[in-house]
Design a protein that fits this description.
2 copies of one chain form a homodimer. Chain A is an all-alpha fold. Chain A has one domain. Chain A has helices at 30-59, 65-88, 104-111, 121-145, 147-152, 157-169, 176-179, 183-199, 205-209, 211-228, 253-257, 276-304, 311-331, 341-350, 355-368, 372-379, 383-402, 413-435, 443-453, 456-470, 475-478, 480-483, 486-499; strands at 97-98, 236-238, 241-243, 338-339. The first copy, chain A, has a two-stranded antiparallel ribbon. In chain A, strands 2-3 form a two-stranded antiparallel ribbon. At the A-B interface, helix 6, helix 8, helix 17 and helix 18 of A face helix 6, helix 8, helix 17 and helix 18 of B.
Amino acid sequence: MSGTESAPTESAPAEDGHDLIYGIDDKPPIGETVVLGFQHYLTMFGSTVAIPLILSEPLGLSDKPTELGYLIATMFFVSGIATLLQSSIGNRLPIIQGGTFSFLAPTFAICAMAGVAEAGFEVRMQHVQGAIILGALTEIFIGATGLIGLLLRFVGPITIAPTIALIGLALFKFGAPVAGLYWPIGGLTIGLIILFSQVMRKTHRAFELYPILMAILFAWGACALGTYMGWFPGETLVEGEKIAAHPAHASLANLHNAPWFRIPTPFQWGWPQFGFAAFIGMFAGYLASMVESIGDYYACARMSGAPVPTKKVVNKGILFEGIGCLIAGIFGTGNGTTSYSENIGAIGLTRVGARRVVQAGAIIMIVLGMVSKFGALFTTIPSPVVGGMYCAMFGMIASVGLSNLQFVNLNSSRNLFIIGFAFFMGLSVPEYFIANPVDFEPAWAANIVNTLGQTGMAVGAFIALFLDNVIPGTDEERGIAAFQPKELKESDEGELAQKA
Amino acid sequence: MSGTESAPTESAPAEDGHDLIYGIDDKPPIGETVVLGFQHYLTMFGSTVAIPLILSEPLGLSDKPTELGYLIATMFFVSGIATLLQSSIGNRLPIIQGGTFSFLAPTFAICAMAGVAEAGFEVRMQHVQGAIILGALTEIFIGATGLIGLLLRFVGPITIAPTIALIGLALFKFGAPVAGLYWPIGGLTIGLIILFSQVMRKTHRAFELYPILMAILFAWGACALGTYMGWFPGETLVEGEKIAAHPAHASLANLHNAPWFRIPTPFQWGWPQFGFAAFIGMFAGYLASMVESIGDYYACARMSGAPVPTKKVVNKGILFEGIGCLIAGIFGTGNGTTSYSENIGAIGLTRVGARRVVQAGAIIMIVLGMVSKFGALFTTIPSPVVGGMYCAMFGMIASVGLSNLQFVNLNSSRNLFIIGFAFFMGLSVPEYFIANPVDFEPAWAANIVNTLGQTGMAVGAFIALFLDNVIPGTDEERGIAAFQPKELKESDEGELAQKA
């Protein structure tokens, strides 16, 4: 997931699979299938484009628009393959797989590691790929062995809430500072997102479905107008001195330079480099992604009229998320793949739960992932527009995390202490480790400490998980009872009973 | 409030005023009164000492231990006077008044203002005092006119939650970085606080009442031991070069240098300087403090067996908090005064709600506020111990804020958007304004923008307040219905009906 565009389940008319126009095994006519598939593509587009854009600076791609365009294209290409695999032979739910925000913080930490930070784009990417591949193998192992059930026994909403919320909050250096490169446009983007997604939502279906996309297009249009009118000049030479382009300058130069077609290939950035510290850091991202995905499976099954996921379906889903991440690591998206809750929301809104439609969306992703001009197009969005999108999107991730607090007794001082402490340290500890990375022997151990310490989500998750399982508290108080998907618990108990 | 030491109301046996050993108007024997009053003093001590310690760097007191000692003493002195006034002629509830964390962020912003940042301690303090005095006059006006009821009509839990939480979270630069000056001691302090307050809480009354105080004493003792053993050397000269003292070095030098007695005097740091931008920034802190205090009145009345606060009692309480802040501004604590929820918790735990006891505590504060050695003692706590205390305390403030989310529908995408956006921008916008303060004419307007923009709490509060009142949503959904103290609402409506 990465909670953005559309509402969670709330306003979904198709809850519980009633009233579906097309159920999970239905096959809508080919024309409808393509259009509905394209809609899934549009729904996942915001988060999927955001990830490579965010990664461009830490990966050292700021001044390499061509490679950035390739990276965006690879992202869509791999997401399509992962979606196709998941929906066809994985958990077989109509669930879109795409890039995940939960890998961002560990990726920043890896890119800042000694020996990596000094290197160029390719080397940084290779280290990230290595960590993602090792993490993927672990996820595959966890999915194949069913270890995830064991894991979930210790993970309650007190752990989830700060962990997920910190994924969004930890990105605070990317929100206002990027939108503020030129506030009139950054602010316009934010204002339009609020207007479309919150105020005008009920007035037209387009606002309900694509508020962020439409806000971006409008703001981008404003940049184009301003550029045309000469308000936002491009790079110029004044008395021999180079004046940088206006932040809101809309230029399609990158687009012209990009080739029309390019098929992403495995190891396109070189051979991955494997490091234990990088893997450990990335594993924190994997844990967060797995826990989120399981919740998505239940929501998706309910929406699409599929039977309640069994333990086997859940394990298979995780297994195929691991396979998706492995492919992402091999191709080099700088990220992994995970389930997208915004697309589950789209199923609720459209009342179309057909697997076939999601597969059509996947094929569109793969095809467009081979059109380089397409990836390059997104690199031409002016930064303040991107920054405005960040502000709305990252906040939503934070509150999707916070929404888990509804299961927790918020009058218990035990809970308040754990949640608050995990939250605060999740912001505070990275501040320490970024300023004072530790340096001791063996270097790999110091690297692990630094990578984890710079990853707020990992710090918060570890503190909450540890304290929530160590400090005495009832299941009721901790929200474990209300939180765990009932079905999973029951099938667990059933199995245990069988074994006994 | 400043949510720290003891539990809120949860485990309080005296809820609803039943089972009280002493009720609000009771007069326990003099010996008991003093001991119980001293206990209130110990309960408020953690937050009250923390504030001047946090302010020491922005105010330019880092290398002025003598003045810092005076500042701490003044803090207690003023808190005592404010408590005495509030409990005797204000709302007459047994409610301790002390320094408030909600003024910290605006104070940082004021100290960073152009023309202030370059000046020394006295000038910075004078600007802070000016802002606090103007804010106090406004609070007095709001309390005297009953405007607060109008205000509360727009303020729901969706506004409160991010605002209060950001008071704690915005301090993330002070937590781990300060504890991490020497992790063995910083970590020990954190570990002991967790052990005492969460794990051993039920084993001994001392842990229940003073977990933070005891953790500080233990960790301080460890520093003293390490200093004695020579592990934590003081400032030394090695080959003519000055080597700074070990961060955990425990020295009582500051204590020796301080005079025994010193009565804080009005305007001891010079004549306050009044600025509109500083006032506007500080006013955000006042709003947060007022909203919190009102909740405290209801809790305190319930705990101490006093009648449910009427609108008049609430207004009088705010009026006297304004008077307390005015006195704080005149004496120059660099802060204001507000109601302490930890002491309400202590009433619940001790089952003593007598006003007389709180007044005894106030007198102890005033007396110890005149003993300079006493204030100086706290300046000798080694920094990592203080940092450890921050980590536990600021996290608790954050989660006290988050606990307001229990009244909100966390499945509504409207609410999630507003909460998440306010939270994210509350962290992200200050990041922008600290790096890029705006500079335009008139300068006072630019100053206002910079002061507010650097105050995360103000940004979050404004965004949440605006969006929560503008984006359509039912009272039910917004949590307004469940949140507002029923009594206040009823008396409001009663009065309106009378007027009609």
